[in-house]
Amino acid sequence: MIVLDQVKFLLRITRTRDIVRRYFVVNGFDGALTMLGLIVGFLISASENLSIMINACLGAAIALGMSGMSSAYMSEAAERKRALDKLEEAMVSDLQESSHGKAAHWVPLLVALVNGSSPLLISLLILTPLWLANAGIELPLSPLHLAIIVALLLIFLLGVFLGRIAGISWLRSGIQTLLVALVTVLLIYLIEGD
Keywords assigned by UniProt (predicted)? Predict the structure, then answer.
């Protein structure tokens, strides 16, 4: 609890709580749509080798995670350093050992962790049916169809989360994000289905 309280304090003094939440949703959505696109592509191509599908999707998930982590760290570290420099200039004091100095060090790491882990974790959840089928576990539907259902469900839940943040209808927000996913699937079918 002490660590969690410290994290909340650092996010509060840097006013980055909204940024962390936004990164979680945006990159989670990217991860879900990327996995959905890959899985629909495999479904259209009638590929049957689950190991190849899992490896391709896992590679994309890791790349999304690393991209999210590195880009968020570099941009947030630059922003936090700039903010600390301005504060030090205004205070005419070295604030490296202060709470603001600690925040300038730790907040970029926290933001990077959220930004990178969000698409990775969501992608891994979507891949679960493929792993289960590859392990020989009987599923009620084909693993690709189940993975698509999981992806659509997670995308809907991200929309619900956004709706609750914005204080608007969670159902409407969930349906909006779901429509984006369905349009994506339609476009893939139109382009690749020929």
Answer: Membrane, Transmembrane, Transmembrane helix
